[in-house]
Specification:
Blueprint: H1 2-35, H2 40-45, H3 58-64, H4 71-102, H5 106-116, H6 127-136, H7 143-167, H8 172-179, H9 184-192, H10 197-213, H11 216-222, H12 230-238, H13 245-266, H14 270-279
Length: 281
């Protein structure tokens, strides 16, 4: 009986702790959501409430029609950069990880270690040589340059997750495919890659959200020209000295909507992809 009560207390304590953590982590999102539909006066007087004068869509309407930033164009640029980064990381990182996971010998270990060590290099330290390299390739100020940089910067994480996940897949599948006459390329795409859905979903979440929210690298590569992402354009529209809270909350909410929707659709693969991939690696 004491054991049962002790187990119940532990379960109750664990659930209570999770509820408190969930509330604390959800509070910033709630503040962002509710204040995006309130007047500036209500934001200042009651930031946590639903507002005295009621909720309004004027903030979002004014943000979408703002003359200082073309929101639809920023959405398209960010979507193209994010999609290109995710596709590039999945294609290159997956094939590279398959080779490293199945190869034997010190060369595979060295290659894997070198790639994963890229996680330890801050991207800020690469900005000066990056700008010079993209300038010589005539990609400075182009979204293509941003995509190439984002792929290179996020490839180490992709290899880390994919390699660990592939190592957990039995080699007998590769041997059976070889007996049937399937080559290495066909074995990966037809047999191994379909088994990597949880890992691919986790990579898509981390890489996609990271590329969408990135501000520093697109601002340096694209510069102050007409081509802007949603994050760089948001900063340009709001400005460094603005005090219009309704404008700030509206723009930030607009920039956050795609990531929230994307995570809502992909979250069921999130935990399994990380636990079966990175932890098993």
């Amino acid at each position: 009986m004491n054991t049962i009560h002790g187990t119940r207390r532990r379960v109750f304590g664990r659930h209570s702790f999770l509820v408190v953590v969930t509330v604390l982590l959800s509070l910033p999102l709630y503040i962002l959501l509710i204040n995006a539909f309130k007047s500036e006066e209500d934001i200042i007087t009651d930031p946590l409430g639903f507002g005295v004068s009621g909720l309004t869509l004027d903030n979002l309407t004014n943000a979408f029609t703002s003359p200082s930033f073309d929101v639809p164009a920023g959405y398209l640029n960010s979507l193209w950069i994010t999609a290109g980064t995710v596709v590039g990381c999945v294609l290159l990182g997956g094939m590279c990880s398959y080779v490293l996971a199945r190869a034997r010998g010190k060369s595979a270990v060295v290659g894997y270690t070198v790639l994963v060590c890229g996680l330890l290099v801050p991207t800020q330290t690469m900005l000066i040589p990056l700008v010079y390299l993209l300038y010589t390739m005539d990609l400075l100020g182009s979204p293509v340059g941003v995509v190439l940089f984002e792929i290179a910067a996020r490839l180490p994480f992709t290899v880390l997750v994919y390699t660990g996940f592939i190592r957990a897949i039995p080699r007998e599948l590769d041997e059976a495919a070889a007996i049937d006459g399937v080559g290495v390329f066909g074995t990966y795409w037809r047999i191994i890659f379909p088994l990597l859905k949880p890992a691919t979903a986790s990579i898509a979440i981390f890489v996609g959200i990271g590329a969408w929210n990135d501000y520093l690298n697109p601002s340096v590569i694209l510069g102050p020209g007409e081509v802007q992402t949603i994050t760089t354009g948001l900063y340009a529209a709001v400005g460094p000295t603005t005090t219009s809270f309704e404008q700030v909350f509206a723009f930030v909410w607009i920039a956050s909507i795609p990531t929230l929707i994307f995570y809502a659709f992909m979250q069921r693969y999130f935990i399994s992809g990380l636990s079966d991939g990175a932890l098993k690696g």
